Amino acid sequence: MDKQTEILKDLTSQRSMSSEEKGSDDFKSQVLHGGQRAKQSGNYLYIIVTVVFILALIGAGYFLYQNFLKADDSAIQPAIVSVEESQLSPTETVTPTPEVELDRADLTVQILNGSGTPGVASTAQEYLEGLGYENIDTGNADSYDYEETVIAIKTEKEDYLNLISQDLADKYTVAEETESLDDDSDFDVIITLGDK
Question: Could you identify which of 47, 62, 121, 132 might form a hypothetical disulfide with 104, taking C-beta atoms 3.0 to 4.6 angstroms apart as the criterion?
Answer without folding.
Answer: 132
